[in-house]
Amino acid sequence: MGSQERSQKEKLILDVAIKLFTEKGYHATIMDEVAKNAKISKGLTYFYYKNKEDLYMAVTKKAFDELKDIFRDAIKVKGRSGLEMLTEVAYNYIDFSVKNKMYYEAILNFLGILQLYNDTKLREKIDPKILNSVHFQKLLEIHHDSAKIGIQMVSNGVKDGSIRPELQPEVTFYTVWTMLIGFERLLGPVSLEGKEIKIHIDNFRPGFIKLMQDMLKGSIQAQRPQAVQASLF
């Protein structure tokens, strides 16, 4: 089998898996079903992907590649300030998390796995099938690529004056990323607006982006409320 045919088979299986994971979820999807929908024998499917965990790691790598494109597209446009780049990333990141739920959940799942992986005592809690996946090993190498670009955007912003000069790029970017994850996680609660919480989903995003911009620019200042004098008559 030639390398081109092999690549086509791998892509076919991956595309089918993405469709099934999206429609049914990870746990409800089985490898036999992937093989059937791809019209490939079970044996050949297992030849390309050793098990469902290995296949999910391959899907996760594709998710990280898609995320990286968001950052690359924002930084390659000339004439933009660092803050403008980060603002575009923030908008597109939110859209990505909403429109590509399966990809986004795969990314968050991997970040959770990393918490265990970085602690030798907790690493044994990770499924060995994941640790033995060649795609998991690739993820260990590339998962920080988007962050590197984001950190460069902050550095650019500090240099061009659009971002406060005292901010440390690495800490700043990961703080912004933390905020974006939190924003996505709270979309559900905000959508279920109650009488006691005066917020609406339509103004949540622009308000969030503006607050992020103000924090990075340093335009948030504590102000004492002005006393208002009024006559009772």
Automatic annotation (TrEMBL):
DNA-binding region coordinates? 30-49
Has keyword DNA-binding? Answer: yes
DNA-binding in keyword set: yes
Q: Which UniProt keywords apply?
A: DNA-binding
Q: Which InterPro entries match?
A: Homeodomain-like_sf (IPR009057), HTH-type_Tx_Regulator (IPR050624), HTH_TetR (IPR001647)
Gene Ontology terms, MF aspect = DNA binding
- Chain ranges of the HTH tetR-type domain: 7-67
For this UniProt entry, which residues form the secretion signal?
none
> What name does UniProt use for this protein?
Transcriptional regulator, TetR family
The beginning of the lineage is: Bacteria, Pseudomonadati, Bacteroidota, Cytophagia, Cytophagales
